[in-house]
Backbone:
């Protein structure tokens, strides 16, 4: 992966934003825990906004330094606010809303977001993985939602888990708090692929460049439609999808892509 992102690296603690043609890689760079502190969440949101505003960007990758992808919320930061007059209520609410904003920003991002998971993803860190459109993990990666073990049910991670895993698998993780390995996470539907650690960056890079080679307007239309129809009943979903596909057919890239297919040539995307 490093060879793809060798240009335009910008370290802005607590994240390292790396850019290459058509690609943005956001690296959580506050090891060992890479906790989702307020500063970390703001930094990720800022990087996501920059990537969304960059019309040349096609794919975002979220990765992390160290052996822990993310340990979730910064419990020390949260506990320190128990001394506030309201026992921390306002800060707790702000933190949870900021986390929800971050996860929705990933889902609503105009380009696909891929999680590159090389280590442990726990609680809100696991939520971060589940919120991404795709997730590729190393054989050394592990996942859990252990809030139940410390008296704090992982209610916000539950939103992302319940939309990606079967209900039984999601409840298994939420109720037991036990850690699962990467292969089990794949069986549960939390991640797409499990690869040897030495190939993780290469495989993620292959996914990213493959997606980046598609029509950007088509991918944007498709991602938005996928999440909207998923929240609808069957009949409404088909009505909505039919309307989206009709509009998509009128896009210049659809005309070009279909024409190129019929003429047996490579399409030239304009993003329109």
Residues:
């Amino acid at each position: 992966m490093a060879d793809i992102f060798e240009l335009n690296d910008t370290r802005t603690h607590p994240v390292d934003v790396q850019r290459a043609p058509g690609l943005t890689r956001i690296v959580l760079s506050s090891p060992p825990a890479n906790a989702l502190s307020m500063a970390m969440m703001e930094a990720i949101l800022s990087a996501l906004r920059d990537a969304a505003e960059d019309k040349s960007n096609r794919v975002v990758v979220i990765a992390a330094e160290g052996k822990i992808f993310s340990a979730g919320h910064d419990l020390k930061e949260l506990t320190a606010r128990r001394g506030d007059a309201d026992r921390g209520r306002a800060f707790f609410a702000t933190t949870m809303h900021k986390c929800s904003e971050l996860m929705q920003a990933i889902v609503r991002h105009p380009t696909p977001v891929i999680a590159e998971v090389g280590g442990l993803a726990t609680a809100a860190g696991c939520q971060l993985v589940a919120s991404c459109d795709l997730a590729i993990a190393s054989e050394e990666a592990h996942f859990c939602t252990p809030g139940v073990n410390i008296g704090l049910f992982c209610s916000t991670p539950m939103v992302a888990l319940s939309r990606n895993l079967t209900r039984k698998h999601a409840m298994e993780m939420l109720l037991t708090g036990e850690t699962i390995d990467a292969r089990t996470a794949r069986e549960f539907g939390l991640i797409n692929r499990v690869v040897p650690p030495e190939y993780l960056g290469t495989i993620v890079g292959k996914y990213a460049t493959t997606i980046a080679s598609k029509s950007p307007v088509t991918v944007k239309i498709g991602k938005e439609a996928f999440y909207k129809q998923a929240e609808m009943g069957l009949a409404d979903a088909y009505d909505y999808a039919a309307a989206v596909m009709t509009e998509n057919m009128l896009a210049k890239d659809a005309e070009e892509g279909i024409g190129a297919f019929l003429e047996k040539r490579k399409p030239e995307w304009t993003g329109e």
The chain is about 45% helix and 15% strand. The first strand starts at residue 9 and ends at 12. The mean pLDDT is 94.
